[in-house]
Structures are given as C-alpha cells and as structure tokens.
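Practice problem 4.
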C-alpha cells in the first residue's frame, strides 16, 4: 500500500537578535488536537505550491509577516500523528529574517515571542522536545527523523543527518 501522508510545514521564526522564537499558544479552539500546547507556525501544503512557498504562505497567514530568509532544518515523518491516526510528513524551517510586525493572535491562539532558553519549559508535544534542539543547533546539515505516534503518544524517535 502506498504511503500517502499529509504534507506540511512547521516554521520557527527568530527575532532579529536571535534570542526569541515566535510560538503559537494553541488556546483558541476547544476541539483543537493541540489545545494548550505551544508550537511553531505552519500547516498543510496546497496543490500547486512547493514546500518553501507553503512555508511562506503559512507564516504570512498565521503571523502576518513575510519570510525574507529561511533554511530547511529537517524533515520529520510522523506516522499515526493525526487526530484519527493520519500520517504526517513535515518540513521544518528556521526563519531568520522577516518583514513586518507579527500578529498578537490568530484563529488558533495567541502568538508569543519566547526566549530560546525557555522553549523546553513550555507545554508542547512530547516529541517536540526531541527535534527542537536540532532546529536551533549549529550543525548545517538537515536532520531527517521518524517519530511514530499511537493514541496521541510518541512511540519512538530516530534521525539521521547526511
């Protein structure tokens, strides 16, 4: 059977001094699978767009800012992650330059600039604690990870860098 994951982006926007990251506190919709958690910005790729265009569109829609410079930091395969066990394939970006002023909130929750050294203390998906250090480290090689989920819980984590 062919593997047909939902393809999506996940981006972490750095402040101009690189000390803070724009995060969304998912606290607006009671039916949200991510309710109460902090996350980067992003979403599903649309037909006719490449993955970089998807990231730019999602950042503009969710935060009201325009990406000027971004780097692909890695890919993540999340089998079973979706609300109904759907598989997801994510392209993880670091946005290190942008134009505009970020919204204070959007339909999914409050946008907050969080100090990088506080990220791991936020309520977030268990799995995010494994790959976030790779997003912000100094290794220029992208990571490629697999993080299966079952019933909303991470089952394992592995990655490679080439």
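Answer key:
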């Amino acid at each position: 059977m062919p593997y047909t994951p939902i393809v999506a982006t996940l981006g972490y926007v750095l402040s101009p001094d690189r000390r803070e990251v724009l995060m969304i506190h998912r606290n607006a919709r009671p039916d949200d699978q991510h309710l109460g958690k902090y996350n980067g910005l992003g979403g599903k790729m649309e037909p006719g767009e490449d993955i970089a265009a998807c990231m730019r569109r999602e950042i503009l829609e969710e935060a009201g800012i325009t990406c000027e410079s971004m780097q692909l930091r890695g890919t993540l395969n999340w089998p079973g992650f979706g609300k109904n066990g759907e598989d997801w394939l994510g392209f993880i970006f670091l946005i290190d330059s942008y134009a505009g002023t970020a919204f204070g909130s959007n339909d999914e929750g409050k946008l907050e600039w969080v100090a990088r050294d506080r990220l791991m203390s936020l309520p977030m998906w268990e799995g995010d604690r494994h790959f976030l250090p790779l997003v912000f480290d100094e290794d220029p090689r992208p990571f490629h990870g697999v993080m299966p989920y079952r019933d909303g819980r991470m089952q394992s984590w592995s990655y490679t860098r080439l």
